[in-house]
Amino acid sequence: MKRPFVAFIFIVASAAAIVVGAAGFSSAVAQTGAAGGASTASAPATPAGPVPRMADGHPDLSGVWWPGRDLQIRPLGDPPPAAPGAAPTAGGPPRRQSFASLYQPWAQEKAKTLGDKDDPSLRCVPTAFGTLNVSLYDVGFVGQIVQTPKFIIMLAETYHGFRIVPIDGRPHRDDVAPSFRGDSVGRWEGDTLVVDRTNFSEANWMGAEGIVSFHSNALHIVERYRRVDAGTIEVDATIEDPKVLTGPWKVPTQTLKLAPFDQIMEIGCSGVETAPLMEAASKQNYGKK
To answer: Among 131, 149, 275, 288, which lies 20 to 30 A Cα-Cα from 192?
Structure first.
């Protein structure tokens, strides 16, 4: 199947914050993106049927995965969406807990000194987890899984991102330096793939788009992937960081749908694209006192 158009969008809000845009992944997004409108095209049908399996009987997680809908592009000038877990707005419902909502007191004070201009993703640095609470996407909107008998390879379109997850029983490596996306090892618990991630660099954030979410080198992430049918994967994650959090963060279950294309495309980042955003962020306080 021919791959739909991919648009990498950086949106600068005229009076508020900057957003390091995720990617829009359909021709409808491309047609509306210039005007800042949201796509109204119907999402393609998700394949139905039983879970495909490898020769060894384990579920085959291979495929290109996305949320099953187009990226909703915010009109230029609209305020950015609130970070999950942020304090509720007046009269609004309470928001879901987030990584940063569990900061220890010292981390809460540090977070107050940081903002959009400090976001490492502006310098082409990938996230430790992912802006949409799906590590497969990183700062994008789609990801690809390639499964072999020994490895599961997870690819993101953004920032040259990849993870190689051994599933042959080997332990974590002790001969590599800390990395942005950590060291991953996997194991099967029945039909669920459990991915254990450690050995993170402290140089990136958990998410992007100016959502302050720094972490320490004690970060530990456990993800659980279940392919529930031919077109759906459910992902759960539990995140611990005893140096900065008061307790574990249980990420809400995320549902990934099989995309109507079978190959992702690279969205490069050289830093040149983000220079104007960095300059704008350094000149405005974005409502901060």
So the answer is: 131
pLDDT at 7: 32
Backbone angles phi, psi at 250, to 5 degrees: -90, 110
Structure tokens that stand for 34 in this block: 């210039």
**Per-residue confidence (pLDDT) for residue 199, from 0 to 100:** 98
Rounded Cα gap, residues 183 and 205, in angstroms:
16
Which residue reads 């974005």 in tokens? 286
pTM recorded for the entire structure: 0.77
Q: What pLDDT shows up at residue 42?
A: 53
Instruction: Please report the pLDDT score of residue 97 as a whole number.
Output: 81
- CA angle 213/218/222 to nearest 5° reads 80
How far, in Å, CA of 130 to CA of 17, rounded?
Answer: 19
pLDDT in tens, 80-115: 445 444 444 444 444 568 999 999 999 999 999 999
Q: Sign of the CA dihedral 191, 192, 193, 198? A: negative
User: Contact 230/47 with Cβ under 8 angstroms?
Assistant: yes
Give the rounded percent of residues in the chain with a pLDDT score beyond 90.
60
In this structure, how many other beta carbons lie within 10 angstroms of the beta carbon of residue 248?
14
Tell me if 63 sits within 8 A of 143, measured CB to CB.
no
Please, what sign has the CA dihedral across residues 89, 93, 98, 103?
Answer: positive
CA–centroid distance for 267 within its chain = 14
Q: Which contiguous run of DSSP H or E holds residue 106?
A: helix 105-111
Listed in order, strand segments (DSSP E) in 167-218 are 183-189, 192-198
Single out the residue of 112, 156, 204 nearest to residue 22, CA to CA. Answer: 156
DSSP 214: B
Burial class (CB in 10 A: 0-12, 13-18, 19+), 213: buried
Is pLDDT at 168 greater than 90 in this prediction? Answer: yes
Token pair listed for 69: 């809908």
